[in-house]
Design brief:
It contains ten helices and 22 strands. The protein is an alpha+beta fold and 448 residues long. 39% of the residues are buried.
């Protein structure tokens, strides 16, 4: 059935649309407040089963019987995370979301966009979440190096807990590659010489030492227990172990030794990858014969670019660009947009079968090339089977994403975070598919 929408002011011709599209449009209009806040949808974290209910009457169909469109999605990209929930973490009391192969996270300032990406990244780190929190996330938030002896009223992990309530447990749960995975962080019970949970101060000027418990469970297997320790090193003191990170005089160690359970990258909106890191990623791509993919992606922003090359300057590998001039030019001279694109695409190709988390994806990129950047992200994700979750508060960025995924709408989803002022500012989430996103943009509703 076809319905007609009245002509727009200014003499535009009536637009004909399907009944389903008209119904979505009416639903969006009725439910939208001035800030487009709608009641949150919560999802239970449960394993994805081999059968999927697709018929209106609830009849179960095997995957081979799914509609062709669904089969196409499976061929486009594997969904690493399909569902995720977080409790007692940073700004979140309790939140659950559904995720798409490429998910854009929007929301106003202080709505929890960055915190959601951090929670997923910590979850992907599994047993070494404590180390990741003090290294990657600490630097991404611009907090600088830590010093244990400055935390005389708590531990270095206290900021991970909701409202700094360390008596609660941080709970991160996700359906990852069709199985339920849980990661829990909690302070160590019992007092020490300083009377602080997880902190000990030795006599005679010994180093500070703090610890946190990490409980990791995957599928139906039993829970694994880990202890993350941070120790302020004294002169000549050294801790050995498989996971032993030296951080400004602080040693981070996990017992028993462990590694992240899936490959993941967290790309901060405040700082992009260092030049040495970009050079390393490009070299790895060139070894595998994928360097041209990165080159073509950057050419969407700088058409003059002809080639990329890694040169060692003062003992440091640096990425250089050939734009047709007499000399190769250092890559940072071309601006933040090119650096950002190189950061995104090279990280995706380095994380095959994993997940990339990009905070404030639009930073440093002119709005006129955002669609091209999204298109390159889509192509890289398809080729590497990598899931992408990116945050933004830019309407232009949302419009560019919708346009870039016009032919693959089932790959794209939007999660909008918002604070419910009627519930003490509790953060809730609303999920939109690509069609609903397009309708909301066309209706000029605020979904940023």
């Amino acid at each position: 059935m076809i319905t007609s929408r009245p002509a727009r002011p200014g003499g535009d011709l009536p637009v004909r649309e399907t009944r389903g599209r008209a119904r979505r449009r009416a639903s969006l209009t009725r439910s939208a407040s001035p800030t487009f806040d709608r009641p949150t949808t919560h999802y239970d974290i449960a394993p994805v089963r081999d059968t999927v209910r697709t018929s209106p009457r609830g009849k179960a169909h095997s995957r081979s019987q799914l509609p062709a469109a669904n089969l196409q999605v499976c061929a486009i990209i594997q969904l690493v995370y399909s569902k995720f929930s977080v409790a007692n973490f940073r700004a979140f009391d309790d939140l659950a979301v559904q995720l798409s192969p490429v998910t854009v996270v929007s929301g106003r300032n202080n709505a929890g966009k960055t915190a959601l990406l951090e929670a997923i990244f910590l979850h992907s780190s599994g047993p070494v979440a404590g180390t990741v929190a003090l290294t990657v996330l600490q630097n991404a938030r611009g907090q600088g190096p830590i010093a244990l002896n400055t935390y005389e009223s708590g531990t270095v992990w206290d900021s991970l807990f909701h409202n700094y309530n360390t008596s609660s447990t941080v709970k991160l749960n996700g359906v990852v590659n069709r199985e339920t995975v849980s990661v829990e962080l909690s302070t160590i019970e019992g007092s020490t010489a300083a009377g602080l949970a997880g902190q000990s101060v030795g006599a005679g000027g010994q180093a500070f030492s703090q610890a946190i418990h990490i409980r990791f469970r995957r599928g139906r297997s039993g829970a694994e227990q880990y202890t993350q320790t941070a120790t302020q090193q004294t002169l000549g003191q050294q801790i050995t172990g498989l996971i032993n990170v030296q951080l400004g005089g602080i040693s981070l160690q996990v017992q028993p030794p462990a590694q992240p359970f899936i490959p993941a990258y967290y790309l901060s909106g405040r700082t992009r990858a260092s030049q040495a890191e970009l050079a390393t990623r490009y070299s790895a791509l060139r070894v595998r014969g994928r360097d041209q993919d990165l080159l073509r992606a950057i050419q969407e922003i700088e058409p003059r670019l002809k080639a990329l090359e890694v040169l060692v300057i003062n003992g440091q590998p640096l990425l250089h660009a050939d734009v047709g001039g007499p000399d190769l030019l250092p890559f940072p001279l071309f601006g933040e947009g090119m650096v950002a694109a190189a950061d995104f695409i090279s990280a995706i190709y380095q994380t095959k079968g994993g997940i990339i988390l990009i905070d404030e994806v639009e930073n440093g990129i002119h709005y006129t090339v955002l669609e091209n950047v999204w298109w390159q992200i889509k192509r890289a994700a398809q080729r590497t089977n990598t899931q992408v979750i990116a945050s933004t508060h830019s309407r232009e960025c949302l419009q560019a994403a919708r346009s870039a995924f016009q032919k693959e709408p089932r790959m794209l989803g939007l999660v909008r975070l918002w604070r419910d002022q009627k519930d003490a500012g509790r953060i809730s989430a609303t999920k939109y598919n690509a069609d609903e996103l397009g309708d909301a943009l066309e209706l000029n509703l605020d979904i940023r």
